[in-house]
Backbone:
């Protein structure tokens, strides 16, 4: 504070610092579309999408609803600008102290962990403790025991399948949480719900019939989907598998959605279908793995043929499991996107 | 320069990234940057694991030409762990972003302190 | 292999499958599925417990066709069985007790999602209890975290959303530390399953290799799980989280979720890192100091708090401090005391949260001290439940809290260096506990002064009912339902059982701990 240039506010350092502090966004000026203020708006600054919604709204009722809703949310726009909280001197000193402490903490964590890894075995060395009998068996016998040419797939879907099942459940429960947060159900709910519904109204975000995007999507989407299916089906033969293939499929669907809009995708993909696919895939996964865990633990023969390694129909349960995982991941990725964009599928 | 830190350069980098991500997640006020920090932290751990599985001069663990010898392939275990970890990280990121959207809709801010303060005010009102 | 031995695996898969199934059901059916799943898993856990007590040994169960260092494994023993049974019972009662409020707090169309969270929470808790594999533990820790976040934010009011994001941030810090600890451990041992990893750790310690990494691994894993379970300096997310969630969620989170992580930590100490190594590394002393600080500071915060639910939440901070103090003593007796206190706290804290709900119902859904005056007369059963829970927390004889305090005190006597601080902290913390809990209990049975002055009848109870009319019936909340009463009575019984039949339970805990090694 001792040294202050006249044009400090516009200097690069000041802008950099404010960006580091999280006060401004470097891209804010260039990227954001400023919407003219609606008269009678309580707080203009922080509510860009809202005022846009009110602009776009056709009837007066919606407009009023919007401003009411925002006042219910944060009605102190005039009385107290958002950054007043940081104006007081004590808090500013606290912030300074906090920054210093955070840098110190970062450095100390890095120091401790660097000290640790300095004592660890050197990387890339075949004699390290982690290259022991565990990985040796995966490599030497994996092909015979799981039938998968891709040893990693064999490991995660057969040797350590319980982890992988847990992981699918992580994805499932995360999608449930996002549904809770973002799905908008009640059409005539309270003011908060209606406000959210209005903000999430997709027509404003819907791309206009962009001919370039649509033509590119026509070419790319089939290719992407075919490639995704290829990755899923070849998970036991080549790099890839359910998760990576599913992510590719999901991105293909998202591209299609962006080019053609929700009306087209709703013809083949709604929330009902999403729930059914997830249910079927996870149920099959659950049953198949339960069967193999149960037979394994009780020393029974599983009776599932492993096939000839290297062919597409081989490696027992791994192929169907990959398909299930691929379906779940593709649907979940698409569902995340649709929920983030308009609060529904 | 033959100290372990320079020999294990990838590990050093991953640890530094971990520290940066951890601190960002813990101490940054902006929620989006916290989420970025979380992703940096997770990715640093995956880098660490991936590096640990690597063995110089060996192939990816996909059986080629019928060779099934330990000396031909790298360790498959860390790769599998990274695969599992990535999905977990995707899920938590999606959840935190969804929460951030809801909080921003409600309070018009991404600053965690301000959100907490406004939430308290809202309750008092 | 007998059928009973399959039960741990069945119960995990059953809970998970009921969650998956609930995604297409409506709220009511999902609730019934969830209750059925909880009952069945509890029965199965009881069978496992019976089996282990009868045979006197633990067993491991292969998850798949491949034996120990290659495939996944779970493990069941006396301690696992006990914990699973208790968790099942507490979960069931919490869901039953808070059912009406869940229906009120959660949007109609999202109720099935709430029960999905409950199911997956149950399955992840069971998996954390039974697991014998470190990476499985990590995956299920994440499921637990996300399900916990879902339970917090499902109420969708401002405070619960903001506390959910805080909870997620702290949990992710903990998970990150836990994961880097696992990676380091995998690097020096080359194993992810607990039993082979323990052998590798023993070999490393014997050879005197990797001293620094081992120390850092222990520190990082302990701190990671301590953050997630809310040990004192990392407790900031607790009061908001427990204070603003729907009652079932508060009871489940405070009673079970934090305990799951503590159980995992104890398991890792015993079954991976080795108890002697952990004690030699001084990590236990750090946990001991944090535990003591938590015991005192949690109680101080609770005294300063005006909102009763936040007060109960701060009391959780203090009780978590007790548990870590027991672990920090570093003796077998201390560990037994910590585990018994873990059970006590699950049962008692869930009782407090659920019976507090009964009191709010008759006080216009207000949670501050003034509004709760006299509510003990307005809802007698909830008042008794709250009083029993409070007395148990303070350490009243016959109740479970007394036994755990007794165990802490006797175990402190066995460790000479830590005896004095432990006993002093126990005494001070007990007094502080008494101050805030008994103050609230006295408030519950005090007639509001205004009403007292204006009261016209000479019958005391009649006046109280007049007060209830003025205050309680204005709210939209119905008088507590049969389900809530059932839950409160069962929780009181559970507390009495833990308090009166403590000897066999304590014996079996000790038995289970020896099986760990």
Residues:
């Amino acid at each position: 504070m001792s040294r202050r240039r006249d044009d400090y506010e516009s200097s690069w350092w000041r802008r950099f610092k404010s960006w580091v502090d999280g006060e401004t966004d470097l891209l804010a000026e260039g990227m954001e579309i400023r919407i003219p203020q609606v008269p009678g708006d309580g707080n203009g600054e922080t509510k860009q999408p809202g005022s846009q919604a009110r602009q776009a709204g056709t009837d007066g009722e919606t407009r009023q609803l919007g401003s009411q809703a925002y006042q219910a949310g944060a009605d102190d726009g005039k009385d107290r600008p958002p950054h007043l909280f940081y104006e007081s001197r004590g808090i500013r000193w606290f912030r300074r102290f906090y920054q210093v402490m955070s840098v110190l903490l970062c450095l100390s964590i890095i120091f401790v962990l660097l000290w640790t890894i300095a004592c660890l075995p050197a990387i890339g060395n075949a004699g390290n403790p982690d290259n022991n009998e565990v990985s040796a068996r995966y490599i030497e016998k994996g092909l015979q025991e799981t039938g998968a040419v891709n040893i990693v797939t064999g490991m995660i879907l057969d040797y350590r399948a319980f982890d992988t099942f847990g992981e699918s459940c992580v994805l499932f429960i995360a999608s449930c949480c996002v549904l809770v947060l973002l799905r908008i159900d009640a059409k005539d709910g309270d003011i908060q719900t209606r406000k959210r519904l209005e903000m999430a109204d997709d027509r404003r975000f819907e791309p206009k019939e962009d001919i370039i995007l649509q033509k590119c999507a026509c070419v790319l989407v089939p290719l992407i989907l075919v490639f995704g299916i290829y990755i899923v089906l070849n998970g036991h033969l080549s790099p890839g598998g359910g998760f990576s293939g599913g992510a590719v499929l999901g991105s293909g669907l998202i591209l299609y959605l962006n080019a053609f809009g929700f009306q087209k995708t709703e013809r083949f993909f709604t929330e009902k279908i999403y729930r059914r696919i997830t249910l079927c895939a996870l149920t099959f996964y659950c049953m198949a793995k339960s069967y193999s865990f149960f037979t394994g633990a009780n020393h029974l023969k599983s009776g599932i043929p492993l096939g000839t390694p290297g062919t597409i129909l081989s490696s027992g349960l791994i192929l169907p499991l990959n398909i299930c995982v691929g379906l779940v991941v593709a649907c979940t990725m698409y569902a995340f996107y649709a929920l983030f964009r308009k609060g529904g599928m | 320069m033959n100290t372990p830190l320079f020999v294990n350069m990838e590990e050093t980098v991953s640890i530094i990234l971990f520290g940066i991500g951890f601190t960002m997640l813990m101490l940054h006020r902006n929620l989006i940057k916290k989420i970025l920090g979380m992703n940096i932290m997770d990715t640093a751990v995956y880098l660490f694991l991936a590096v640990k599985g690597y063995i110089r001069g060996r192939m990816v663990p996909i059986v080629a030409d019928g060779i099934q010898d330990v000396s031909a392939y790298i360790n498959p275990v860390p790769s599998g762990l990274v695969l599992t970890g990535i999905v977990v990280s995707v899920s938590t990121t999606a959840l935190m972003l969804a929460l951030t959207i809801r909080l921003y809709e409600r309070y018009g801010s991404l600053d965690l302190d301000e959100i907490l303060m406004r939430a308290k005010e809202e309750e008092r009102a | 292999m007998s059928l009973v031995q399959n039960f741990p695996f069945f119960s995990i898969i059953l809970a998970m499958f009921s969650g998956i199934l609930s995604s297409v059901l409506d709220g009511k059916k999902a609730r019934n599925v969830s209750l059925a799943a909880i009952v069945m898993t509890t029965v199965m856990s009881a069978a496992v417990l019976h089996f282990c007590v009868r045979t006197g040994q633990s067993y491991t169960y292969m998850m798949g066709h491949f034996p120990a260092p290659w495939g996944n494994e779970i493990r069941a023993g006396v301690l696992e069985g006990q914990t699973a049974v208790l968790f099942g019972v507490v979960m069931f009662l919490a869901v039953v007790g808070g059912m009406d409020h869940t229906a009120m707090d959660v949007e109609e169309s999202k109720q099935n999602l709430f029960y999905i969270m409950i199911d997956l929470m149950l399955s992840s808790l069971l998996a954390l209890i039974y697991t014998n594999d470190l990476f499985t533990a990590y995956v299920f820790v994440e499921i637990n975290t996300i399900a916990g976040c879902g339970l917090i934010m499902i109420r969708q009011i401002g405070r619960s959303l903001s506390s959910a994001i805080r909870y997620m941030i702290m949990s992710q810090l903990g998970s990150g530390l836990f994961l880097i600890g696992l990676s380091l451990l995998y690097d020096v041992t080359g194993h992810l399953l607990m039993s082979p990893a323990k052998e590798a750790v023993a070999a490393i310690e014997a050879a005197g290799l990797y001293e620094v990494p081992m120390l850092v691994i222990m520190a990082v894993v302990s701190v990671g799980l301590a953050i997630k379970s809310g040990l004192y300096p990392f407790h900031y997310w607790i009061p908001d989280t427990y204070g603003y969630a729907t009652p079932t969620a508060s009871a489940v989170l405070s009673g079970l979720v934090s305990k799951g992580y503590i159980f995992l930590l104890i398991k890792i100490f015993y079954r991976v890192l080795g108890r002697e190594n952990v004690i030699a590394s001084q990590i236990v002393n750090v946990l001991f100091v944090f535990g003591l600080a938590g015991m005192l500071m949690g109680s101080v915060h609770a005294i300063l708090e005006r909102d009763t639910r936040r007060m109960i939440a701060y009391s959780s901070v203090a009780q978590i401090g007790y548990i870590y103090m027991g672990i920090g003593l570093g003796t077998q007796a201390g560990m037994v005391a910590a585990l018994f206190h873990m059970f006590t706290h699950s049962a008692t804290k869930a009782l407090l949260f659920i019976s507090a709900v009964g009191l709010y119902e008759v006080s216009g859904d207000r949670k501050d001290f003034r509004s709760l005056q006299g509510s003990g007369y307005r809802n007698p059963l909830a008042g008794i439940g709250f009083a029993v829970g409070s007395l148990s927390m303070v350490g009243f004889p016959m109740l479970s809290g007394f036994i755990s305090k007794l165990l802490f005190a006797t175990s402190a006597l066995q460790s000479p260096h830590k005896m004095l601080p432990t006993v002093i902290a126990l005494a001070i913390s007990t007094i502080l506990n008494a101050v805030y809990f008994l103050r609230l209990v006295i408030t519950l049975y005090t007639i509001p002064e205004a009403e007292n002055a204006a009261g016209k009848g000479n019958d005391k109870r009649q006046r109280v009912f007049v007060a209830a009319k003025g205050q309680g019936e204005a709210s939209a909340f119905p008088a507590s339902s049969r389900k809530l009463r059932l839950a409160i009575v069962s929780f009181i019984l559970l507390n009495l059982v833990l308090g009166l039949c403590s000897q066999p339970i304590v014996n079996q805990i000790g038995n289970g701990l020896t099986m760990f090694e």
